[in-house]
Amino acid sequence: MLDVQELGVVPYEEAQALMKDLQQQRIEGVIPDTLLLLSHPEVVTVGPRARNDGVAPPSDYETVPVDRGGGLTWHGPGQVVGYPIFKWGERDGETSVADIIHIIEGWLIETLATFDVKGERDDRMQGVWVDGRKVCSIGLSFLRWVSRHGFSVNLNTPAGRVEGVAGCGLVADTTTSLTNLGYDVTPEAFVQALLPVVRLTLEE
Could you tell me the residue ranges of all domains in the chain? Predict the structure, then answer.
């Protein structure tokens, strides 16, 4: 069973508190696997790797520290964010964090394919890449194999904003949006295509 909550625009701090609460409920078996779908007002989340390396976005970006893996991730308008509060390890192929990231990448690649957009994995960093540019980011945190945080997909983000943030180990302008690459996929259409893909994974 999958509970999907489409929440609209949610300030990052509110979403972070909700994720923590739902993660504990999922650990206790109070709720089923839950997928939060939303977007955030513009903010750059700063993970441990970025803090350790002293990496920061340009000064005109609001930031917030987070406890998921990775470095800097831009959030803002024109982006679909998904937070799977899932209990992993109960289905085949879920024996490691790398397996789980691979599964989520697969969701996004398959969803993009429905719009004739070829998404790919890239050795430079986890996530999904299109035409050599990164359009989807993934960062997770686990407690007792229940995940928190998740993925973001840059569809029609404001020109230059996500491009101005250097993801960990990448230079600025490596990450971009589908619109900037010449593809037209709305957030509503992306979510509609994504949900059957996620549900099929949980049934396998």
Answer: 2-203
Name the nearest CA neighbour of 77 among 38, 46, 108: 38
User: Which whole number is the average pLDDT over 155-163?
Assistant: 96
**pTM of the complete model:** 0.94
Q: Does 168 qualify as catalytic in the annotation?
A: yes
Within 13 Å of residue 180, how many CA atoms lie on the same side as its CB? 22
Distance in angstroms (rounded) separating the CA atoms of residues 1 and 137 = 25
Q: How far apart are CA 58 and CA 93, in angstroms?
A: 39
Q: How far apart are CA 108 and CA 89, in angstroms?
A: 20
Q: What CATH code would you report for 2-203?
A: 3.30.930.10
User: Which residue among 168, 178, 194, 198 is the active-site one?
Assistant: 168
